[in-house]
Automatic annotation (TrEMBL):
InterPro entries: ArsA/GET3_ATPase-like (IPR025723), ATPase_ArsA/GET3 (IPR016300), P-loop_NTPase (IPR027417). Transmembrane segments: none annotated. Residues 18-295 form the ArsA/GET3 Anion-transporting ATPase-like domain. One of its GO terms (molecular function) is ATP hydrolysis activity. CDD domains: ArsA (cd02035). It comes from the Bacteria. This is Anion-transporting ATPase.
Length: 368
């Protein structure tokens, strides 16, 4: 297993080439990813942050209306030593670029692009988005314009699908049925070919002969390209397993989020991966120093001339104290024994995080 537990989070973003954020939905993962990216850029790194989620959360966090598949330069706060770019994955554009890269001729490219199966592939086939995200990661990883790639993944299950996409693609391309569909059948395998055609004929009765014909034609047009896809998938797998890649978990103190985080950790271990840190986001804010909270058992003693309004304020304040204490206790009970990594607790932000300056402030809190 790749043990990535040493060093602070600041050291991580200063030294790694790839940072992947993972976690449940609704915990502020995209905002955290952007804040980490700005934090790394402040130290002097050339950073690109990419989101796989088709929602516009990354653009919103950066104060932009939209992002494309091409890196957009982000203006950084004063004092930053590096650069920051951001992009949102475009599955179709990335797939098209791969086909163009590995096709042997313009005729083959045109044949694939005209096929009905291909036209639906980038939007409907399970796993296409995940694999194209990994392809985009590879491209950014090779781009000398950047020395750090921060990847904002979909919620837990989607993130795991993302990490497993290269292995699944290699398995699919090695599948015997797939190979029979795209390559001429030797004479000694003719009986097997007949069996395959019989299977396709049976499938045709269910989904229609036109669909099967389009599929067979697509796979045969794909012949020769699959080796390039396979080689790239293996390279992406090596990047994910590299010591230069780290995984940062993001969660919240809510019970459902903690439950998903436990499952995420289990699946990561199965994949021989591990987290470098776990950020617990959106805690009830702590309004005074911990030392003062411990000393001031009776807040009214610090509020001279206490009246009814101050009494209500005191009760509200104590309720917030209890809420925060319960949240921290819940996190410790569910996660501390499972995650032997640094825990970083981040309060629920009192400002809307939708500008580079706000992200910079959040990034400083995370990395301090």
């Amino acid at each position: 297993m790749n043990d990535q537990r040493e060093g602070t989070l600041l050291q991580v973003i200063e030294t790694k080439k790839t940072v992947v954020t993972l976690g449940p939905g609704g915990v502020g993962k995209t905002t955290i990813s952007a804040a980490l990216a700005i934090g790394a850029a402040r130290t002097g790194r050339k950073v690109v942050v990419v989101t796989v989620d088709p929602a516009k959360r990354l653009a919103s966090a950066l104060g932009l209306e939209s992002l494309s598949n091409t890196p957009t330069n982000i203006e950084l706060p004063p004092g930053s030593k590096g650069t920051l770019h951001a992009l949102m994955l475009d599955v179709q554009e990335t797939f098209e670029n791969m086909v163009k890269t590995y096709s042997s001729s313009q005729e083959q490219i045109d044949e694939i692009f005209a096929n009905k199966i291909y036209q639906n592939l980038t939007q409907s086939l399970s796993g296409t988005q995940e694999y194209m995200a990994m392809e985009r990661l590879w491209e950014l990883h090779q781009d000398e314009s950047f020395d750090l790639v921060v990847v904002d993944t979909p919620p837990s299950v989607g993130a795991l699908d993302l990490l497993e996409a290269p292995k699944r693609l290699v398995s699919f391309l090695d599948n015997r049925v797939f190979q029979l569909l795209i390559k001429p059948v030797p004479l000694y395998l003719r009986p097997l070919s007949i069996a395959t055609r019989t299977l396709l004929k049976t499938i045709s009765k269910v989904v229609g002969s036109e669909v099967v014909t389009d599929a067979v034609e697509f796979f045969r047009a794909f012949s020769g390209i699959e080796e390039g896809f396979k080689a790239r998938a293996l390279e992406i797998g090596e990047i994910l397993a590299s010591e230069n890649t780290c995984f940062i978990g993001v969660t919240s103190p809510q019970s459902l989020a903690l439950k998903e985080t436990v499952e995420l950790n289990r699946r990561l271990i199965e994949g021989r991966l591990s987290l470098s840190a776990l950020i617990v986001n959106r805690l009830t804010p702590q309004f005074t120093q911990e030392s003062n909270l411990q000393k001031d058992n009776d807040l009214s003693a610090t509020l001279q001339g206490s009246n009814d309004a101050l009494a209500v304020l005191e009760e509200n304040f104590k309720a917030l104290q209890r809420s925060r204490k319960d949240e921290v206790s819940r996190v410790e009970k569910r996660l501390v024994d499972l995650f032997q990594v640094p825990f970083i607790f981040i309060d629920n932000q009192q400002e809307e995080v939708s500008t580079a300056a706000a992200l910079d402030r959040l990034g400083r809190k995370i990395l301090s």
